[in-house]
Amino acid sequence: MNAKRVVIVTGAARGIGQAIAGAFGDSGDTVVLVDRDPDALHSTASALEQGGADVMARIVDVTRSTDIDRLMSDVIEERGRIDVLVNNAGKNTYFDAVTMTEDDWDSAMDVDLKSVWLMARAALPSLIESRGSIVNVSSIHARLTTPGMFPYAAAKSGVEGLTRSLAADYASAGVRVNAVAPGWTQTRLVDEWAARSDDPDALSKVLRAHPLQRIATPEDVAAAVEFLASPGARAITGAVLPVDCGLSITFRVD
């Protein structure tokens, strides 16, 4: 893997984004941490710096093009290039299609879909120069979903369509665009869900539904992202790589 690439990771302050940033930092890359939570961002940046990583940390609202343009200018000015963009920022949304307001819809799409386009649009000129790559974090919900996930599933389906379109449009410029699609992942959200459940066996049932009898860790997702951004994936573009411990290959009736 090439050392000292410049890698931008959105939603980098915790969870999957934090693991992704750590993986690139451990590989010797310069990592640009992007998040809206200043305390969590500072904590993650400090931890990576203590581990020897070259880090930039920026508080950015990825739904605002002015914030994004300022970010890209800072990165180019301070590090000279952009080699990898990881669009990880997102939020879970749970609405009923009838009662959901237009403002709720716009907010959900802004974070989970529009931000991916805005970040790609701003980074692509530099990525073309570096013949770099984009890795978008989608979700298993883009193709397989459950009741109560509206409109999250719609947004993530859009992320995968955007991934394919950008891959096709910029392949001739040497830019690869791929996505990972995590399923259940051991994050704070899963812990909180299990704690709220009335079923003490809820998490065990989830584990049994997975062929590998486990759910992914943030580090599992980070490893997949790092691979797709690496020279080892130089023949891969427009792909969506599931990171779901086999859940999406099953047809369960129990």
TrEMBL record:
Origin: domain of life: Bacteria
Keywords recorded for this protein, A-Z: Oxidoreductase
Keyword hit for Ubl conjugation: no
UniProt keyword annotation of Transferase present: no
One of the Pfam families matching this protein, by short name: adh_short_C2
Record-stated family: Belongs to the short-chain dehydrogenases/reductases (SDR) family.
PANTHER family in UniProt: 3-OXOACYL-[ACYL-CARRIER-PROTEIN] REDUCTASE, SHORT-CHAIN DEHYDROGENASES/REDUCTASES FAMILY MEMBER
UniProt protein name: SDR family oxidoreductase
Organism per entry: Microbacterium candidum
Native organism taxonomy: Bacteria, Bacillati, Actinomycetota, Actinomycetes, Micrococcales
